[in-house]
Amino acid sequence: MTETDSTAGRRPGRPRSEEAHDAILSAAIALIREVGYDAVTMEAIAARAGVGKATLYRRWKEKETLVIEALGRILHAIPVPDTGSARGDLLGLMRVAVGMYGDPASHVLLSGLVAAMARSPAIAHAMRTGFDARWRAAMRQVLERGTARGELRAELDVELATDVVSGPFFYRYLMSGGPVDEPSARALVEVALRAFGAPAGTSDR
Amino acid sequence: MTETDSTAGRRPGRPRSEEAHDAILSAAIALIREVGYDAVTMEAIAARAGVGKATLYRRWKEKETLVIEALGRILHAIPVPDTGSARGDLLGLMRVAVGMYGDPASHVLLSGLVAAMARSPAIAHAMRTGFDARWRAAMRQVLERGTARGELRAELDVELATDVVSGPFFYRYLMSGGPVDEPSARALVEVALRAFGAPAGTSDR
Amino acid sequence: MTETDSTAGRRPGRPRSEEAHDAILSAAIALIREVGYDAVTMEAIAARAGVGKATLYRRWKEKETLVIEALGRILHAIPVPDTGSARGDLLGLMRVAVGMYGDPASHVLLSGLVAAMARSPAIAHAMRTGFDARWRAAMRQVLERGTARGELRAELDVELATDVVSGPFFYRYLMSGGPVDEPSARALVEVALRAFGAPAGTSDR
Amino acid sequence: MTETDSTAGRRPGRPRSEEAHDAILSAAIALIREVGYDAVTMEAIAARAGVGKATLYRRWKEKETLVIEALGRILHAIPVPDTGSARGDLLGLMRVAVGMYGDPASHVLLSGLVAAMARSPAIAHAMRTGFDARWRAAMRQVLERGTARGELRAELDVELATDVVSGPFFYRYLMSGGPVDEPSARALVEVALRAFGAPAGTSDR
DNA sequence: TCCTAAGCGAGACGGTACGTCCAGTCTTCGT
DNA sequence: ACGAAGACTGGACGTACCGTCTCGCTTAGGA
Question: CA D6 → C1' F25, Å?
Fold first, then answer.
């Protein structure tokens, strides 16, 4: 996520300090928890990390890219459920979603990042590859397993199915204020199965 | 949307100037178009409107509520299509959505407002009643017409169906970057019909 | 002027590069001419010289000492006039002064160094021995020649006479903005002769 | 010294706070005394005065003009001695000079301002009218009284005489490090009398 | 016709954060 | 142990807005 992915031949001069890097990301996370995402300032992060502001700007151009990298540290990989049925797998995944949306810090954080994505292609890219891609990969795996098992239609559009299942929560969470909970998760799974389930006579239902 | 809707009980003192009100809203809209939503500042709006800053703060507490009112001026009511079929009506509505998302100013604007909603309940309320409610009402009308015609299931959960159809575009637009266009609209309508259409043997198809 | 004047006693390790030394001093002079004395930074000098900042600090503690050494390179020795009369000699010397003050870079340069002298005894010492001493020596020579010739009083206080002649230009140049030119030089010489000339009946005029 | 000399018709908007003005100047003076002239920063002045930085920059573009105005507050008018003789008057004035140079804060302060004069015509102007002019006016008065009394030459060049008397101290103080004291003052007065005194046969001596 | 109250534009107020710059030091590599 | 390169902490810079606060002036209704 940093601009130097190394592997390239050593650059001259003093190398960037990993300690500083860690201190900054930790400070960022701590501050987000304490004062909330958009009260966090580069100034405060630097101070908390015991680091000059220039050191921040040398590595991240905006607060958001920094935050995204920081979140990468505490974000676990998304566990892909394997319950034996598409219904179970999808439900498992939706429960993960419910859990993520449930964190009280999430709202300001997510919406702040969404706003930042609209301003900066770099941030958009970081968010899409850093977060969304993980989620979509998990969904893809579940869906493909479902088609392989014959529970879901063979001609299934994975992207569409992913959005149909994921979009409603995202929309409720950020806009309409509708429920993002276990019952809703169940309902959405049933919708998905009706829309993308294999026609009768095959294994589902 | 302003706090004083009173024509009742005349208050003492000089009344608020409608000219100033108009000038401010016009300035806000113009600035959003010119420099983008989040580069707009109260300072600039006041200057552009030829108005003191206090005049702004007397009427709106935050930039967002001002903007929401300003948008109310240029936002048309959502036309509820009546094509004779649920498929046609839904598709008509989705085309409206495609059109709204298509405005190049929309991205920063919408995401900025979404972020503001997370910070301020007042803004959230304004957005939900000012924008989202219009959309949901249109959806409700279309969906109820569908059930009345027997095309859609009688036990349909209108809120759920609305979110299943609307959520994916919202999600693609603000997060994943997926397509928000006519073909996608068609695909989503088909998904909705499969998920919420009346069981075979009834009037749909 | 540098702390290592040693050609004596070979030290271990890589010897200091004379090329670097030259490059630095040249860069310093060039930058002073281009952007003016106090816009010059150690950073810029190092960059221009193609040298690490540490290399500068290894040799000079402050910008000023570096500059003083750099100036030593381009500063000619002060030519002591020998016209045969105290009046002529003094006038010759004052013309040198007029010439030095005439260089457009001199003002910021001199005043900057004067300010630095007040901060740092080291700089003060460098300036006094590097510049002022040369001037005073020239004055002394001229004055002593004058007393030897009987043109000037025998009991003359050389320091006082030097300051009476030199001070007014310095004062005008840095503070009052009065003229520093040939006529003023002439006037000052006449003052000096009246004040320090031998009493009537002796050799002066 | 501020850009608004009033008398002009009232400007619109909230007037500038005199309290803030005073607080700033006091803070500046206090800081100069405490940490020395060139360690004083706009930041520190603002903090000490309990004032926003913008309030400083709204009134003074550079630290130096602020300082000059601040000094104006504590600088007494120069008392013009009237002892009955040119010798006494000049000596009185020189004693004032010795006193001013004697203040331990003066060196960094004066040299800093001299450097600032070279950078900025505004500062140069402020210094010349604010400080130097007072001194020169006092000198002029003394000198003219001397000529009126017949002690000094009628054709006396006041500017030249002023610089001959004042320059040496200025030069010693900022450059050569020579003595600036009572004996030197006496010596300079004698020089002035020899150079500018009326020829023998008139009242002096 | 005045009085009171709230509006108005203008702009200064105390603050906070911005992103940049430089000082002076430190750490890496290669010579 | 030198060299360059470029990282480091620290702190001031000058700017931009924030939301609040005076100013003097205007515009109404009620006394």
Answer: 20
